[in-house]
Amino acid sequence: MSLISNPEYSLINGQAHPTERYVEVINPATEACIAQVGEADSGAADSALRAAVDTFEQLTKTTAHARSKVLRKWYDLVVEHRQSLAELVTKEQGKPLKEALAEADYAAGFIEWYSEEVKRAYGQVIPSHSQAHELTTIKQGVGVVLGITPWNFPLAMITRKVAPAYAAGCSFILKPSEKTPLAAIALAKLAIQAGMEVGAFQVLVTNDSKGLVAHLTASPDVRKLTFTGSTQVGSALLKQCADTVKRTSMELGGNAPFIIFNSAKLQEAINGLMAAKFRNAGQTCVAANRVFIEQDIAAEAIKQITQRVEQLKVGNGLVEGVDIGPLISLEAKQKAQSLLEDALEKGARIVYQGEACSGQFMAPIVLVGVTRSMRIFHEEIFAPILSVIEFAEEADVIAMANSVPEGLAAYFYCDDVAQIRRVSQALEYGMVGINEGIISNPVAPFGGVKYSGVGREGAQEGLLEYQEVKYLCQKFN
């Protein structure tokens, strides 16, 4: 089965939506158009919404075990098509194929987890205030869900929303990034092949994300919005959802500190740093944005970090041995360069920079002497620039780590048990990696605090995001 055709179309109620307007999908490595996808307008959105409302009513009559079987079959199909999905991601997003394969496995993991977790969506029997009453709770799907997903993980960001939503009995309208719509359409086709109701997973592709989303959020029929993206956009979406009092889940921007204390096993810390910083060319919301190194070990640590960064290979993600693919756009590269220029003007120094790259490629850089006065300290880099800040005291590094409004992920390496306890509790972040640079897992709750969002994805918490708890009080005569 071919997952994608060209041209491709938005998927509404299981059917390709005809249109005369198309979104061009660009390979960021070659800058060539690899496919055209029919663009959805407000009329298409209305059709999708009607189908989603009807399907939600159907889903209320299905059992958890029936939905579990569909999810399990979807998981099997994603695993079966792992290679094709990964190649699709590399072509439309740019990440190295080895990372795209890992993402396909990660995406499948959410489907597998929720195929089982749906069977454990228990209610409660509450001790009653009287012998004449029985008090219970049940869990029901929240309703029609609108999901907005980013381009940096075009498989996993979808399955970790759609799988729990379907498990809960919700229908889902997806608005994927216009930069990476092909993976979204492929996943939806596989879900329908697995037996998912055609109105339970629909895909709307558009270049007018703002207009289409505003049209849908204005409808009271959409009962929940789930979004992964920038804090600025997330804040605007929260305001749009206020009038109709929608449930929301927001996974927003990060500015992750990565702290290396004197007691750390340095080689292990650097291994963790390389994974946390350079995966997906630094284009992840949990990427190590600010690297804090204790002064006593800073010189040696920077030396070893530089030696590792020198070995990284930049190139087309389909070429074997490539570690860093292109950035998603020229605008992304220009923003990263402006952060670098600002830091250099304010006193930072480059200790390593790879050979200059053309197009959307960017060579890895190690930058030292970073301070709070620089934009690179306060803004998400989303590029392969490793910025180093030295510190002297534990209290100082905690204060610097917590000084930004974001609170998604943080990392620290340390072998002092007492310090591990203190630091893990003091960091104002929703997730903390302790002697570990890769923390995301379908079985654990993913999400941030402060300006990094509300709600959690993955784990039991991810299912609860799509459920309402209904309290039943029954009196017996």
Automatic annotation (TrEMBL):
Organism: Pseudoalteromonas piscicida
Highest taxon of the lineage: Bacteria
Family matches, as InterPro entries: Ald_DH/histidinol_DH, Ald_DH_C, Ald_DH_CS_CYS, Ald_DH_CS_GLU, Ald_DH_N, Aldehyde_DH_dom, Aldehyde_DH_Superfamily
Keyword Oxidoreductase in record: yes
Active site: 251
Cleaved signal peptide residues: none
Protein name (database record): Succinate-semialdehyde dehydrogenase (NADP(+))
EC number annotated for this UniProt entry: 1.2.1.16
